[in-house]
């Protein structure tokens, strides 16, 4: 019996040591030449998340500084008010739209005033299909609440049933009320109507990058010199979703070339080239429409 107790104690000590090693891998010690942007790309997180998790007021970091890749905050919640969108809420709380989806069991970005959303310290939740379908029928009656829902959320017909609940969201939501924060963040770029018809349309998660990160050459995957052509509109894509070299139109950015790739750009994600590093940081994370023109 004593031998069994000793063996169990040794196993517990080994388990604790393994847990300590796993925990240590959730941070990064800054080395000379590191930038917050490069660290975020290598670890598939955003600059805003790193700044939020590490209580940083700017993207200035120093050698030997410890950068955490997760939040140690307790669970936090937020009550939705009229005019809110998921992208604005995510940006305000230093997280991503994908995490809000996971923590709150959402299957679309349709939200209503009074909803309670977990915005920090959450765990993944399954989204019950019947609850998503029923929500518009119960809460969409008051005109002022319907107007608060983001217009793009009403697009899938199967989620917006009954049909009459879709019409007020498309007609009554003023553009300035639906996404004020996103319009300010996108100020450095303009979005003109596409010059030709789209062959494919999709919704993606967009971030931004510059040509002057530490160690960057400024030359894209397709050979475009961004430092010599700072006004060139280029996006980094997953070639399995948007073919390299395609001409595209991006909501809030305009027509561009799918001329680059990135280690963190997988699936329905894109990275917009913006010349100014501060403007790229201010862009944050946004849900946008993309039209593949050719």
From TrEMBL:
Alphabetical keyword list: Signal
Region annotation (Disordered) maps to 129-193
Q: Where is the signal peptide?
A: 1-18
Domain LysM as annotated: residue spans: 26-69, 76-119
What's a BP term from Gene Ontology annotated to this protein?
Answer: peptidoglycan turnover
UniProt-recorded Gene Ontology molecular function terms: hydrolase activity, hydrolyzing O-glycosyl compounds
Q: Which PROSITE patterns match?
A: LYSM (PS51782)
Pfam families, per the entry = 3D, LysM
Q: Does the keyword Nucleotidyltransferase apply?
A: no
User: Among the entry's GO cellular component annotations, what is one?
Assistant: outer membrane
**Which SUPFAM superfamilies does the record associate with it?**
Barwin-like endoglucanases (SSF50685), LysM domain (SSF54106)
Q: Which domain of life is it from?
A: Bacteria
> What is the name attached to this protein's record?
LysM domain-containing protein
Native species: Jeotgalibacillus campisalis
